[in-house]
Amino acid sequence: MPRESQTKPAAGHRPTYKILCISQPRIRVLGSEGRSAPSDVPRTRHPPPPRHRASKHRSQAMEGTSTSRAQIVPAPLRPDLVGKRSVFLAGTTTRTTGPDWREALTNAIAHLPVTIFNPLRVDWDSSWREDVDFPPFHEQVHWELDMQERADVIVVYYGPGTDAPISLLELGLWARSGKAIVACHRDYKKRGNVHIVSQRLGIEFLDADDDFIAPVARRLQALLDESEQRG
Questions:
Q1: What number of other Cβ atoms are within 10 A of residue 69's Cβ?
Q2: What is the reported pLDDT for 209?
Q3: What's the pLDDT at 159?
Q4: Can you list the residues of the chain whose pLDDT is less than 70?
Q5: What distance in Å separates the CA atoms of residue 71 and residue 174, rounded to the nearest whole number?
Q6: Bias category Basic residues: which stretches (predicted)?
């Protein structure tokens, strides 16, 4: 009732008040099997269980899978390496509608006794700052540089739909090392530049939309054969 309609009680009159009780609606709480739980049971908020999306990769990083001889090392892990040779999967990380090139290459060389460095992180958060003082970013970049130095082969992949500036930087770092193999999609915007640099420095240049996996496997097999000959 609006305040303006209220009137003062007469002198000496003690007003009586009625207490109006409004009951709260009952809440039906379903148990884990769909049964109704008592409404007077307090509802407790439990934190969601921790997510362990990288657990599969962690086990592979230590000793490979039961069906392969390859050791897969995802960022930012640093286990003891067991592969006789190693390859770093540099290049485009932007998701496309096609199959993941890293997964396809990994599956194709999983029968080889090699270590595969995969910089793609399943727990990467797009809100992370790309700043030298931001610990996760600092850790990621240093991991990539360290593993590229340790790798015998560095595959640099350029897919369509992105300029891939970091991948261009990576090619520049290792262009004269003799370790780089370039796989470049025909629709990559900077393909001409990458192709000329590869020709000039004698870098193996492959069409990414053709079968670029077989040449990479052959390079690794040749290095393994070389290791066997040396004893």
A1: 15
A2: 87
A3: 93
A4: 1-67, 95-98
A5: 23
A6: 44-59
